[in-house]
Write a structure and sequence with these properties.
Blueprint lengths: L7 H17 L4 H18 L5 H24 L26 E3 L8 E6 L2 E6 L8 E7 L6 E6 L6
Parallel strand pairs: 3-5
Antiparallel strand pairs: 1-4, 2-3, 4-5
Helix pairs in contact: 1-2, 2-3
Length: 159
């Protein structure tokens, strides 16, 4: 009774499928299956009679070893909740898209300066003094400091 035969193209197919899954699902674990199947395929290139039982054994051991090592390495890294606020990457806000929009001030503009928060980003406002609750229109954005927004009071609205 003969055993089953694994050929070199079987392992290259597994390599291709594992790479596809790794890229499609943005996961590093299938990469280890791709590495292991590439190694086994390489062994078969030089030793075509390599027993199937050993092929599967090498594939399983290398895949499990790589997956375990990857899990251990990433386990020590802090999660997003554990990272301090000042270490988190800053959110990118397209401030130039605000030009022409009307915003209601949560804090007053005093001596031509104020603050406004939108989508977790605090912007500096520059414009005429205005009380909190007043409405202003965004008329421009500073070209160098993208967090400085020029505003003007909205005509006909009491602030």
């Amino acid at each position: 009774m003969g055993g089953f035969l694994l050929e070199q193209w079987h392992w290259w197919t597994i390599t291709l499928l594992a790479c596809t899954f790794a890229f499609a699902f943005s996961n590093s674990k299938p990469v280890w299956a791709a590495v292991a199947s590439t190694i086994v395929g390489g062994i078969l290139w030089f030793w075509p009679d390599f027993p199937a039982m050993y092929q599967i054994g090498i594939f399983v051991v290398l895949t499990m070893l790589g997956t375990t090592l990857t899990s251990m390495l990433y386990k020590g890294r802090p999660t997003e909740e554990e990272v301090a606020d000042d270490e988190k990457p800053r959110r990118v806000l397209r401030v130039d898209r605000l030009i022409g929009h009307v915003i209601t001030l949560e804090t007053p503009i005093v001596n031509g300066n104020g603050l406004f928060e939108i989508q977790g980003v605090t912007l500096r406002l520059r414009g005429p003094d205005c009380e909190a609750g007043g409405k202003v229109r965004v008329v421009g954005v500073d070209g160098i400091d993208r967090e400085l927004v020029m505003v003007e009071p909205l005509e006909g609205v009491a602030g």
